[in-house]
Design a protein that fits this description.
The structure is a homodimer. Chain A is α+β, with helices and mostly antiparallel strands. The first copy, chain A, has two domains: about 130 residues, Jelly Rolls; about 90 residues, Winged helix-like DNA-binding domain superfamily/Winged helix DNA-binding domain (Arc Repressor Mutant, subunit A, Orthogonal Bundle). The first copy, chain A, has eight helices and eleven strands. The radius of gyration of chain A is 18 Å and the shape is globular. Chains A and B meet through strand 5 and helix 4 of A and strand 5 and helix 4 of B. Chain A binds a DNA duplex through helix 7.
Chain lengths: ~240, ~240
DNA sequence: CGTTAATTTGAGACCATTCAATTTCGGTGG
DNA sequence: CCACCGAAATTGAATGGTCTCAAATTAACG
């Protein structure tokens, strides 16, 4: 874990999607990176900031959020290791939202210019990057639907389906059991509900033997049932596997 | 209007953002396009479809939407002339949502392969395309916030602010007066409300002398006031002008 | 083992929904 | 030009899902 390249998981993930040549691979692994760690709830990116680098999550979870003028918060996405938390900041000049660590995080920060030079020089990498941002975009669209048109049970169920599937696909869980460090308040901020109602909704899902959730562990007891309740269709994740 | 190139508005819009050389410009204008028209409420793209082309809106309005299993609809974005309604379909294999015309539309359809070849050959154009998709993405994020955390007055006000600003920026309105063909049901589907409550909310905004809205015409009477109510900050549109 | 964060519970209030009926608007044909 | 029609907008009243506010319980952590 220690001295292997921080960007190895990224290359592995991209490699599943696009055919990467050895040259491509080495170009990515040769990127200048700064290792950083963030303690729980730290700000990794702030809205309004000029963009100077992009951040690959190596260990831990992160989330994007926006604050309203009245202090309310809406979480916009969650991120797991091997994902960029702010790839759009390689292209856009100003960050339009905040990124926070969910727990202790290790990241690799890549200077914006180096990343863009890489994209210009390597078509396959550029494509992988573009696809990353486009899948992000698709997830945001699904979240608009989730908070816009689903009731509380469906919202929570849908979010759990998404996270469970993404965790499983990256090997971060087995048999429907996952390390799941989200608080109920964070689940609430991601689904547009209050923490209190999120609590009652989780109880309702537990009562129906769809999930177990406690001590930072999520157990999906009934995947089909949970998908049903959450109106979940994984098409939007574009996981061509 | 008739025989000038359909893609002229697209080139003009991109030119404001990135420096395009004459070669760039001509390359775009030389794209093979199919002109199509759609009558009101026609489907331009369907979820699940294999992607074969991308569509530039030349005249009329369009919107993206997803349907839930119970038939409910969530509108995800609106589009005005000179914008692609589905640029991500140049890269992703499968459409993950529907696109519908709002009124009579004229569009230019560009084959996916031609568009991607262009992107590979012309760095400036590729960047313009990437930025387009990234701004889309930023708008989706803001919509997550809008439907997730704002009350009905703020949701409607915010949506009106966004559309008014985008229309004004493309020269499709002056002095806060816009051609605005959205029905209240469509406003409702975009904000996650019911048509009935949207109606009452609009009345409330009218009562406060913030807007007039009737006969397909929107008049913004108090821009600052409307921004205030909608908690609107245009940063997310990334309009570097 | 104390202290704070996170979860859970209860009761009442409220914003938005539902359902149904009515009115207005826009377009069409006689 | 008026009568007609369906779509869109408007209104009312009752219902309900979610919120608010507070307090109590449990879990996490140094």
């Amino acid at each position: 874990m220690s001295d292997t390249n921080q960007l190895e998981p990224l290359v592995r993930r991209w490699g599943k999607r696009c055919a990467l040549s050895d040259t491509d691979r080495e170009a990515v692994l040769g990127l200048p990176v700064t290792r950083k760690s963030f303690s729980k709830d730290a700000y990794m990116v702030r809205e309004g900031q000029r963009t100077t680098e992009c951040t690959v999550l190596v260990r831990g979870f992160a989330y994007r959020q926006k604050l309203l003028s009245d202090g309310d918060r809406q979480i916009i996405s969650f991120h797991i290791p091997s994902e960029f938390v702010d790839l759009q900041n390689g292209v856009l000049e100003t960050a339009d939202h905040n990124v926070q660590s969910l727990n202790h995080c290790e990241v690799a920060a890549v200077p914006r210019s180096a990343l863009m030079d890489l994209a210009d020089a390597y078509p396959a990498i550029r494509l992988a990057m573009w696809i990353d941002t486009l899948i992000d975009s698709s997830v945001f669209r699904e979240w608009v639907v989730n908070v816009g048109r689903r009731d509380s049970r469906a919202r929570i169920a849908h979010l759990l389906c998404e996270l469970a599937l993404r965790l499983e696909r990256t090997g971060a869980g087995r048999d429907g059991i996952f390390n799941f460090p989200l608080t109920q308040e964070q689940l609430a901020d991601a689904t547009g509900l209050t923490a209190v109602h999120t609590n009652r909704t989780l109880q309702s899902l537990r009562r129906d033997n769809l999930i177990q959730l406690s001590n930072g562990t999520l157990r999906v007891l009934d995947w089909k049932g949970l998908c049903e309740v959450g109106d979940f269709d994984e098409l939007y994740l574009h996981q061509q596997i």
